[in-house]
């Protein structure tokens, strides 16, 4: 996702420090204090413009959500959308998802959502894929042993790569769909911006998986 630099983003982020964190390492062990209630924590990595995580937070007031995004101008757009109707159970973090284990304690997270992650199709860029073994290791550290990863994409190559990489890790699949929008699960599916844009072109793939004990 390439976006133009947004000159207002810096000021907007600073002005809304109650809802967005730019120094996540300083919040290690203190995330629950940023929410109205202490309750289970779910994290999305690569939140983009925020539609999915905002709708999830609305639908699940009994869960706290954190949306992690690497690009300042993208997360500023998510924050602006969120500020039209702020919720007490959603926070944003501007940072690289590769560092989750530097700001979450082991087992602190219940679910990790990865939606339409950048495919990085070239083999030499494989390490940048959010489902590469290095990222999986980080997720394993912060996820509760009973926790799951939920991954959606329209990119068949990335989905195939993810099935093999998770299988080798090893992880176990709890759910796999090769056409989410025509499956029973679709009834409760919350769509992302990319999903809305690209689902007319072909199927949406989804998997849910957990780490083997
Ligand atoms: N999830 C959104 C959706 O489905 O509409 C956005 C998808 S977009 C293709 C991928 C997003 O992941 C981009 O906004 C990108 O900046 C973000 N991203 C990529 N690598 C990341 C990383 N290591 N940590 C956090 N965000 C990342």
From TrEMBL:
The reply on keyword Nucleotide-binding is no
Q: Which InterPro entries match?
A: SAM-dependent_MTases_sf, tRNA_(Gua-N-7)_MeTrfase_Trmb, tRNA_methyltr_TrmB_bact
Top enzyme class, one word, equals: transferase
Taxonomically, the superkingdom here is Bacteria
User: What single Pfam family name could you report for this chain, choosing any that match?
Assistant: Methyltransf_4
Any one GO CC term of this protein is: tRNA methyltransferase complex
Per the record, the similarity remark reads: Belongs to the class I-like SAM-binding methyltransferase superfamily. TrmB family.
- Supply the name of the protein: tRNA (guanine-N(7)-)-methyltransferase
Species whose genome carries this gene: Lentilactobacillus parafarraginis F0439
Give the gene that encodes this protein. trmB
């Amino acid at each position: 996702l390439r976006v133009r630099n947004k000159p207002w983003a810096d000021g907007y982020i600073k002005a809304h420090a109650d809802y967005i964190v730019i120094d996540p390492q300083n919040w290690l062990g203190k995330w629950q204090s940023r929410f109205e209630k202490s309750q289970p924590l779910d994290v999305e990595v690569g939140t983009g413009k925020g539609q999915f995580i905002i709708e999830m937070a609305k639908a699940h007031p009994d869960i706290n959500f954190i949306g992690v995004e690497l690009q300042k101008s993208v997360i500023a757009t998510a924050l602006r959308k969120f500020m039209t109707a702020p919720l007490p159970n959603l926070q944003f973090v501007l940072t690289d998802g590769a560092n989750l284990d530097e700001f979450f304690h082991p087992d602190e997270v219940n679910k990790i959502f990865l939606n339409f992650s950048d495919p990085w199709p070239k083999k030499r860029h494989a390490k940048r894929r959010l489902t590469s073994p290095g990222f999986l290791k980080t997720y394993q550290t912060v996820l509760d042993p009973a926790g799951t990863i939920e991954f959606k994409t329209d990119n068949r190559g990335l989905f195939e790569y993810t099935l093999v990489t998770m299988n080798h890790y090893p992880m176990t699949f709890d759910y796999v769909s090769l056409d989410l929008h025509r499956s029973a699960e679709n009834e409760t599916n919350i769509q992302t911006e990319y999903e809305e844009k690209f689902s007319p072109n072909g199927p949406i793939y989804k998997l849910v998986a957990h780490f083997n004990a």
